[in-house]
Amino acid sequence: MGSELKATIPVLKGENNYEAWASIIRFHLRYDDLENYIDEDVEAPADTDVEAKKKWNRDRIRVSIMIQESLNDPKVSTKLQAAGWEYHTGDPYKTWTIVRKVIKHESEEAISSYLEEYTHLNHKTFDTMEAFVAKVHYLRNKLDSAHTQWGGKLPEGFHTTHIVNCLKAGYPMNHMFWEKALAKKELPWTKLMEDLNGISKRETEGARFTSIEVKGAKGNKGNNPSGNNPSGNTTNNRNKIKCDKCQRSYPKSWAYQSCGHHYPLGGICWTCNPE
Length: 275
Description:
Layout: H1 2-8, H2 18-31, H3 36-39, H4 50-68, H5 74-82, H6 92-119, H7 129-145, H8 156-166, H9 172-183, H10 189-219, H11 233-238, E1 240-242, E2 249-251
């Protein structure tokens, strides 16, 4: 039994896998009708009941081995020993209680810190949209993985609405469209992530093009080999988009910025179609 369980019960690494570890332990004990040995300090039968006493000792040893074989991570065992746990103890209830006290307490504190960081997200503290999205995924995964402690995951709509609101100040035009989509229930989490990844990609490409233009400008400073376009108007025109409605031209870069003048995706300028 020991070797079989050793292959299926994960080593407890700390708060990161505590919930999964505890669930698997319970499944095994429930299957063998031994779960009560970690939920209470099972009283020993009277010495006169020899068979019952033997079974009690045997069951305690089985449960203790099952738990202790998964507590061999050096960092975890050090923390448990500092809390009064002894590796060779034959008391499964004491072992389980100390693990819950030391490791689960850390897990609950970590979850609280993740939730606090998630609810106070501010995209302005990130250098790029890519970094912001990465943090969003990291924190949401942490919160979702701990859903058993909450009695259920946070609703999908909460996550979507929360992230949309986090981006209101920096992306007001996008926020306006997202708000309308939310009102119509047409903005699932996956669609919002697609939009943010698109913004991230455009920002990355914009930064790359800007870098190329700056390098080119430095290389051509005071030098006009063609002699045909000293003002650079042709180049400027190539970097502009014409509004389909008013025929005004505006920089391509504006098409993807929340500048208050043009829609984020271009095509029609803000002056012509403010709605």
